[in-house]
Amino acid sequence: MPARSPVILNQLGPIVGERIAAHPSRPTVLMHEAGRSPWQVPAGVEVLLTRPLIGWEAAPAAPPPGWGNGLRWIQSASTGMDFYPPWLLDGAPVVTCARGVSAVAIADYVMTAILSVEKRWDAIRLSGPEDWRRETLGSLSGKRLGLAGFGAIGRAVTERTLAFGMTVGAVRRSGWAEPEPGVEPFDRLEDLAAVSDHLVLALPLTAATRGLVGADLLSLAKPGLHLVNVARGALVDQDALLAAIDSGRVANATLDVTDPEPLPAGHPFYRHPAIRLTPHVSWSAPDFDRRLADRILANFDAYARGEPLRDVVDAATGY
Fold it and tell me: Structural domains in the chain?
């Protein structure tokens, strides 16, 4: 049974920290000290609230001496766990993620990307009367959206695309024990790519999915495909994607993630007219911190009662 007033190390900022500090269990909330590595957890801390891109990428290959002593629970602000060292998931403490917290924001981003391509949003912008011309715009109605991955993000995207009259197909690792309303199940990503007008990558980066979208898959894609990646850059063989776009097989790519991030100066993706790069912001929304705090507090209620936590990361799959 957890202590009544646990000590928490907060690496997520003041909004989350203030909400957690107000919990009825009256926890002691410590703020992360500048200059300390995220794995340098003071003695006596039971709960670690952490996030990627605060130094975890420089973590040692093996857990440092004393790592995990006294820790019972680690909560990540991200859904994907690939930013963390493998030893973070190796046994105790239990690790939970923020699965679904950003699903609505990411789904809105996906719809913006699809509409921008179909409606040729950049091409029809006028800078003077000399640009005035008639253009034929596309439509979402009747187009097929393919989803690689079907979790909270996939469901949120599906809800929006169905409202626009699109058809939706999806593949997912866990298979299809029960039908999903409005979604055609596919067993193979190759088959889905072959019939999709817009293909959205919304699956975790693991050893099995790294480089999943490569030359072989892209050669089977429906001509004119628009690829949208809101997951991880390493899912895509970027050289193969560039070749597929230059050959005309793939018409457009909207990439919120790349490998590495950011891409180095001079990378051809920056200047390619068929590629839109955004700086890994699809998750962003004005209420993100509130939604994250709500999720953590719900888990903290369970923790304080000694009950199972929600969104526990499976060490075997990495998500």
Answer: 7-100+286-305 (3.40.50.720), 103-277 (3.40.50.720)
